[in-house]
Amino acid sequence: MRLDEGMLEYFRDISEEMVSRFGISRAEAVARINERYQNAEISAYPDLMCHEFPEYWAYGLYYYPDAAGRLPTGDEEDDEDFDLSTLEIRPAPAKDSPAWTLG
Q1: How far is the C-alpha of 40 from the C-alpha of 23, rounded, in Å?
Q2: Tens digit of each residue's pLDDT (9 = 90 or more) over 52-89
Q3: Burial (CB count within 10 angstroms: exposed 0-12, middle 13-18, buried 19+), residue 41
Q4: What is the pLDDT of residue 19?
Q5: Mean pLDDT of all residues in the chain?
Q6: Which spans in 23-90 are helix H?
Q7: Angstrom distance (rounded) from CA 20 to CA 102
Q8: Rg of the Cα trace of the chain?
Q9: What's the rounded Cα separation, in Å, for the pair 76 and 48?
Q10: What b/e string do you get for 83-100 counting C-beta neighbours within 10 Å, with b at 16 or more?
Q11: CA 53 and chain centroid, separation
Q12: Which of 37, 57, 70, 99 reaches 20 to 30 Å from 11, CA-CA?
């Protein structure tokens, strides 16, 4: 995807959230982002997605929603009732997929 410098930094922040919150490698975080957004039309910074903090998107890239369709937001107050151990982790992109080489 083509990104301006502002959006590139925003996506870097999302990858850093995944690395720090979930203990995955930066390469895996970038592959998850690439897989999800490779064909997306992303506007210049601030794209509409910037109304949410990077951690909001990080949770959606790493976990499936719970039975009620909810995911943590990254806000400690909003998320105090979430038990992350009950959320199912999305599988990482296959190592031989283009997502690992796009970043």
Answers
A1: 26
A2: 999 999 999 999 999 999 999 988 898 998 898 999 99
A3: exposed
A4: 97
A5: 91
A6: 26-37, 54-62
A7: 22
A8: 14
A9: 23
A10: eeeebeeeebbeeeeebb
A11: 10
A12: 70
